[in-house]
Amino acid sequence: MAFAILLPRSVNVNTSINTENLSVNDLLESMECLTRSIISRKGNKNMSKLLEQINKTRTTKRLGDLVAINQSSIVNGFPYQEIEYVDTSSVTRNSFERPQILNINEAPSRAKRLLKDGDTILSTVRPNQHHYGFIKNPKPNTVASTGFVVLTPKDINPFYLYSYLTQDVVTSTLNAIAEATTTTFPAFRPEVLSEMEIEIPDLPTQKKIASILNAYDSKIENNNKIIKNLEATAQTIFNEWFVQFRFPDYEKVKMVESEMGPIPEGWEVKKIEYVMEFAYGKALISEDRTEGNYPVIGSSGTIGFNGRALVDGPGIVVGRKGNAGSIIWIDDDFFPIDTTFYIKTNLSIYYCFFLLKKQTFSNSDSAVPGLSREDAYRQLVLISDKKIVRQFDRHIKEIFNFITLAKKENRILKDARDRLLSKLI
Q1: How many CB atoms lie within 10 A of CB 6?
Q2: What pTM does this model have?
Q3: Hey, how many other C-beta atoms are within 10 angstroms of the C-beta on 274?
Q4: Omega before 314 cis (within 30°)?
Q5: Residue 255 — φ and ψ, nearest 5°?
Q6: pLDDT in tens, 120-159
Q7: At 102, phi and psi to the nearest 5?
């Protein structure tokens, strides 16, 4: 059974990938060719001349003289009844989730900041979580949280500004300032940016630098769109087969009653504790980590890397403390820390991932939000016929392979971009 993976219109590739006609190796080769072409065309051409221009025209300026900070906010007479709301949690490393559509009268009080094309937004709370982004052609009713500081460029190239402020060294500095505050959450004041002094070349040179860096970011952004589309495709297949029960040859299967309503004959309803183990992660503070490439996983995702793994991948991590109930897929071997559970099971790991995403896990009543393993174990899941799960696995594994490759290429692109960034800015 073949199926097509539809890709966003903005992605400059074929409108679909047929998984019978395109191998993973074909996709990897095409990605590597594109990466090399970007690096060759944009990264190395006339580099020495550009570096000479940077050194020749570089001057020190106060950031507050180059940008407007929090320039526009919702005021009386705002003409839109609905807003597209961007919260801090919906943006990470310039990857935007779909904005919330809210009635202006029901929107949270922090929905105030108006956005313009070319703005840079940075979360003032916990900068090390990388909730920042570059705004491109927002709708006039797009509104951001006051948890962001919005920088509108005046006498600086917009993408150069974004690239400068999202360097790891700047993020670390802002995070150190935030950690030193006495507020409830670690946060820096917008005035910190206003008073910041930066060394920059002239505008024509900034434009050249921005063009080079944007080539990398555009490819990463396109990969992120492909990843989201593939994830949506995988979720659609799961819902079609295991929620709507429209799996292959479903017409031939009788429906029977169960605790969860009508289900296909031969399928079973079971408590989670009988089909999965929620194993505890292990404490691993940053000082105890060794150099390596194994991701360290917390309840909100990857928080660092380590020289050894605790669990063989691919695998599933469930948030236990903090972002309790989060469901995280990990492609490679990994190290889940003690704020998480990781899943042990004899079932298909792909099938379990979507089963868990379908659950609603409630927090315990303790001061720190947490997921009780006993509460999770009591929840019911629907266990399908093994033959159907095997068919599902074949399709989903192919989709996940494409997702893994796109993520790996993004890491290569980001590493190359960061090395170039250190030379250019």
Answers
A1: 13
A2: 0.77
A3: 10
A4: yes
A5: -95, 140
A6: 999 999 898 899 999 999 999 999 999 999 999 999 999 9
A7: -130, 145
